[in-house]
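Researcher: Let's do a round of design. I'm pasting the structure tokens now; please hold your answer until I've finished.
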């Protein structure tokens, strides 16, 4: 399937979900259980579109003990689509008959403790009718019933919130909120399209966290911005702290938000430079 076809298929599914799928709340009940004894065990771990969030990538690359750059190279696709406002990353399925997930094994998921958000959520999905804050308040859960899945025949009922707690989704959702502040920013609601150098910046800061760390620690970054020693230490050692910092940096760099403070001497020099070029009023 080409990237265009893949993105069209995803867009069509979203349309159908918004129009036709019953909407569930956290208190809604549903019958489902997945365990190694089901006849369909592992059948769902192939030929699926799994979007990876920055937090998914951190969990997965650390689980595998590789760098973010190696993870992206080996295990992901970054489809280009003219309708995309920012880059997205998909888990790349193997090139075999079943288009198996690279992490599936006879015993189940090899990265189970660090499996992506959407694998934890299944059979639930989460959708919002649009991207304004009002529309986001109307976010709803829905059941995605894959025909292959026998988990719905199991005699086990739970509420949506029980399922979410059982799947350890809280950390993922908390981290997802930071990412949403970026991706659902009003900048992207207009006609704005990021220029290529900013797409690159977005991609590296969000998805290629080890390279982002190398870039900021091996450049004049800290000479330009006021960053205290404690923050510097945290982002050097902790991927999640660095990810949150990277989102803050992107909000500054992409949307001109005051989420970073430029050092006063750098700011004065910049203002002098602009004055000299006649771009600032004297
Ligand atoms: S990451 Fe694990 S749970 Fe998700 S599709 Fe792959 S094998 Fe299945
Ligand atoms: S198809 Fe459904 S029941 Fe079967 S392994 Fe996948 S999630 Fe579990």
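Researcher: That's everything. Go ahead.
Model: Designed sequence:
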């Amino acid at each position: 399937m080409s990237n265009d076809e893949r993105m069209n298929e995803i867009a069509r599914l979203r349309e159908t979900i918004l129009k036709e799928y019953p909407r569930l709340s956290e208190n809604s009940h549903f019958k489902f259980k997945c365990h190694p004894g089901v006849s369909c065990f592992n059948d769902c771990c192939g030929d699926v579109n799994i979007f990876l969030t920055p937090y998914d990538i951190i969990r997965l690359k650390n689980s595998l003990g590789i760098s973010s750059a190696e993870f992206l190279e080996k295990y992901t696709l970054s489809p280009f689509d003219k309708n995309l406002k920012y880059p997205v990353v998909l888990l790349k399925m193997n090139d075999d008959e079943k288009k198996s997930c690279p992490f599936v094994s006879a015993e189940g998921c090899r990265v189970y403790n660090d499996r992506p958000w959407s694998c934890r959520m299944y059979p639930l999905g989460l959708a919002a009718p649009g991207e304004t804050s009002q529309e986001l308040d109307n976010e709803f859960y829905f059941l995605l019933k894959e025909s292959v899945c026998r988990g719905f025949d199991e005699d086990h009922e739970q509420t949506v919130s029980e399922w979410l707690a059982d799947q350890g989704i809280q950390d993922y959702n908390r981290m997802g909120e930071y990412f949403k502040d970026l991706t659902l920013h009003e900048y992207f609601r207009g006609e704005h399209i990021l220029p290529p150098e900013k797409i690159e910046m977005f991609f590296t800061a969000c998805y290629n966290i080890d390279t982002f760390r190398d870039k900021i620690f091996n450049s004049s970054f800290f000479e330009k911005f006021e960053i205290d020693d404690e923050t510097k230490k945290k982002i050097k050692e902790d991927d999640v702290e660095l990810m949150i910092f990277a989102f803050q940096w992107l909000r500054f760099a992409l949307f001109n938000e005051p989420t970073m403070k430029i050092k006063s001497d750098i700011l004065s020099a910049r203002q002098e430079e602009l004055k000299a070029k006649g771009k600032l009023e004297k």
